[in-house]
Amino acid sequence: MADLKTDVRYIKGIGEQRAKALAKLDIRTLRDLISWFPRRYEDRTEVRRIADLIPGETACVCAMPASAPAVSHIRRGLDLVKLRVVDETGTLDVTFFNQSWLKNSLRPGESYVFCGRAEGPPLRRRMANPIVEPEGRRESTGRIVPVYPLTAGVSRLVLSRSVRQGLDACADILPDVLPDEVRREHQLCRIGYAYENIHFPASFEALDLARRRLAFEELFLFTLGLRRLRQRRETVEVEPFGPVDMEAFYRALPFTLTEAQRRCIGEALGDMASGRPMNRLCQGDVGSGKTMVAAACAYFSVKNGRQAALMAPTEILARQHYEGLAPLLEPLGVRCALLTGSGTAKEKRELSAALAAGEIDFIIGTHALITGGVEYRRLGLVVTDEQHRFGVAQRAALAGKGDHPHTLVMSATPIPRTLALILYGDLDVSVIDQLPPGRQPVQTSFVDGSYHPRIYKFLRRLVGEGRQVYIVCPAVSESEEDDRKAVTEYAAQLQREVFPELRVAYVHGKMKPKEKDAVMTAFAGGETDILVSTTVIEVGVDVPNAAVMVVENAERFGLSQLHQLRGRVGRGKWQSYCVLISDNRNEETRRRLKVMTKTADGFKIAEEDLRLRGPGDFFGRRQHGLPGLRVADIGCDAQLLREAQGAADALLARDPELKSCPAAAERIAELFTEAELAFS
Ligand code: ADP
Ligand code: MG
Prior knowledge:
Bound molecules: adenosine-5'-diphosphate, magnesium ion
Shape: globular
Mean pLDDT: 86
CATH architecture of the domain at 443-599: 3-Layer(aba) Sandwich
Oligomer: single chain
Radius of gyration: 30 Å
Helix content: 40-55%
Largest sheet: 7 strands, parallel
């Protein structure tokens, strides 16, 4: 029969039309379909009697139409179906808007279940637009009903019926990737039961079992996959890098490196001298000086006759790295160049040719570095900055440009230990847990909107002293259009009414990269006093003269995000300030924001954030780029993760090639290549 790669259109009961609709949700194969998990569930198990309805509550009743439904045409575009239904305890008036076909499908004398919000006084209960189905069908009522993420053109019913068809089609062929003994040892239900109950739970207990099983499976496969990546790497041999006079590099620096920077550099250099490809994460709070670690590694690589590449997530960051590093490294004989998307085609061609000819030693750029045309001569080291912006796969794509180059990933997101283990399970980790000396902590305060006049006065004073200011507005809604408006209007208002004598500019996500860069460059060059923005400034641009970060509606931001924002100031010799503004009265929210005034430790803040909001928000759902994690909630399922990791390691210990479970091996291969393809 079917296998999971079967196109959904060949599944009984689906067909071309529905397949087209499903494709809008990227549901193409049988696997896609049955893995389209509900977002939540509605408990419609209980069916009440009409007399027991409570106004304002949603409930199901089983009742019979007392007479044929009446249809009235209220006005153009508005039809009303009205009927009275009865059970042995009372009557209920039901109305439907624009569903006139119901007129013929609701027959007096037959029983239907109506599910909706009850209204009206005891003897005149009403329900508008309830969900209705014949008694006994139990598709939309009388059970726990799945609520799926939907899109226009795919209704709830179409989706749940399609899933039903999908489950029926693969009832007998679902491969169980979990070996029996693992399933038994960890008390996990069978695969068929799991899929059935995650979609159509027989009870909430059954749902829990299903979810646990599927989450375990994901974490298990994920762990196996990461271990495999690591294994594969460990069997690769590369020519070890030889010793280099690093003192020459250190002497060229305008400052002494911190002990933590030195330790990280030592660890990375050790990797590169080991004869195995380095795969290291360098984690350090904003401002901890990660760039110098990258520079030291690049120097080491180049002095070993290999090229080095540094990839940054935005053009302005790439340029900033280039402008900071080239003057430092060029005098030491390292030929540097900048490659971004914005150069002319001719420039890019020339750069490419120079790279391929080995006339460039250290190339700094954006994802332009991994595009097809770019070739390297002897790429020995790949550094990616602000890794959380790139997927696992982009990392891989750049590494693919060389023959097992060393890779160093730099991240400013302080990640709690447990999460780092999953996210970077295939990496070794170095932590820069120390800031350069002489940094003054950013003074952080938390106030309500009534402080605006005082804040404006304060800003005016600091600008008068020569400083610059960031004002961040949160995303006001789901739509970027509205965000743009919020930012541009606020900037215009500030310019007009508050700071007519100052230079106010704005930047938001809807602007073209070039425009954004121009605004940021002007700000970095001191041509702007006040920059109003959405969080596009979050990514590490260095403007030492910026001394104030004002965050409006601070309650809308996660703590880690606020921490990143605050990291934009306090980078120079000036005392800097962070002002969080919120009128939110919620106790929990206020407590959360207070955390910011009490600690500057990114790791503490990240842990607090994770505890309060869960990992979905922490990483931005679906943005984590981790292959195959749909049910498992990294962070919340920490205990389950430990179990799954234990099981994976035990399996690998007795069967490193996974010969005993080909289904798992196959799935891992699929997941990990899918992840890589997704970005290329
Ligand atoms: P991040 O870790 O956020 O990428 P950067 O590498 O941008 O930090 O460094 C932040 C600032 O600190 C830069 O201006 C950099 O020149 C400076 N810096 C880095 N290391 C040191 C040090 N050891 N002593 C003094 N300043 C340093
Ligand atoms: Mg940085």
